[in-house]
């Protein structure tokens, strides 16, 4: 039903455009072609304004690069903050251990860490990097 009415409206518009239909026949039709014609003229004017306006050129690649760069900067700030907090925590633990057990314990702890940590961190880093070197 809707398709037939749309086809009828299209036929009326085509007839009006090619001046095959007189105004009296338009008034007798059950479609409000005059109102539709006004709406189409307004729409045409809006499209003409859009066609006359300069095109806006957007460089999608630059936008994506800027977003990636902003994300990287944010990640760098987070990593720096985490490093500072972790460093402060380790330094505080060292000071606490020195106060509790003395400086000799701290020296032995440093020697132990200096020899064992590389043997632990290198295999762990290889496991987490999934063999990528």
Automatic annotation (TrEMBL):
The chain crosses the membrane at residues 80-100, 106-128. Residues 26-53 form a coiled coil. Keywords: Coiled coil, Membrane, Transmembrane, Transmembrane helix. This is Uncharacterized protein. It comes from Caldicellulosiruptor diazotrophicus.
């Amino acid at each position: 039903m809707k398709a037939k009415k749309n086809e009828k409206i299209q036929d009326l518009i085509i007839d009006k455009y090619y001046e095959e239909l007189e105004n009296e026949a338009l008034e007798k039709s059950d479609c409000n072609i005059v109102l539709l014609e006004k709406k189409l003229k307004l729409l045409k004017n809006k499209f003409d304004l859009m066609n006359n306006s300069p095109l806006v050129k957007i460089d999608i690649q630059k936008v994506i690069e800027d977003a990636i760069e902003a994300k990287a900067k944010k990640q760098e700030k987070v990593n720096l903050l985490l490093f500072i907090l972790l460093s402060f925590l380790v330094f505080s633990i060292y000071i606490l251990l020195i106060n509790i057990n003395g400086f000799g314990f701290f020296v032995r702890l440093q020697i132990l860490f200096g020899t064992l940590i590389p043997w632990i961190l290198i295999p762990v880093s290889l496991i987490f990097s999934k063999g990528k070197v």
